[in-house]
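User: structure tokens for this one?
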Amino acid sequence: MQLISRRLQRRTESRGGEPLITYYDLATGERTELSAITVTNWVDKTCHLLTDEYGLDPGEVVLLDLARTHPGHWVTAIWQLACWRTGSVVAVEDLEEVQLVVTGPVFEQGLAIAGAAGADLLACSLHPLALPFPGTLPNGVADYGLEVPGQPDQYAATPVPAEQLAWRSAEGLLTQADLAALPGSVGRRLLRPSTPLATVRDGLLAAVIGDGSVVVVVGDDDAGIERVRVTENVAR
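Assistant:
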């Protein structure tokens, strides 16, 4: 069975220049498009951050608060793919046994959780170009936008067991094999984020597994969503 990291590699090798993730925020007008090559580059850098800078071993837990607060964001997708490539467990709910906490621009709760667990905390500005925060962050909060650019561009992954736990949330537990066994989708698909697991299952994972492409749209503007459908040539 080809696990998710291998499927992403296959997609990058075969159709690397084509869009894999396109992200819209209708409220801000943001549009960010990432090819499979660009996604893989961000994933590789984030893998080095996880293993080289924070020393995470396979099976250790990343509390990915981004999956709760911004389930469809492209930065959330990068973190999910990086965790699965290194064998880390993506967790959504608060846990005592957690090695790293990753949040969005609102990080106060994450800082408290990290402090209680003795874990490190990384905050992501979620700027469309993944720029750092404009100011200095408090002690104990590292800036993803500062930490990740200098990481190496290629990550030599070690094999991850298929039975390794990959996802932990109130919606369920999934192993690496469970992720790879989910249904894929071909073509270009529009997704409006919902719950953390449903969003990654029906969006990122479906696109990677099915060699497709996902257009994530955040916002409740029906006219705006229809414009995105037309602009991106997404089928109903």
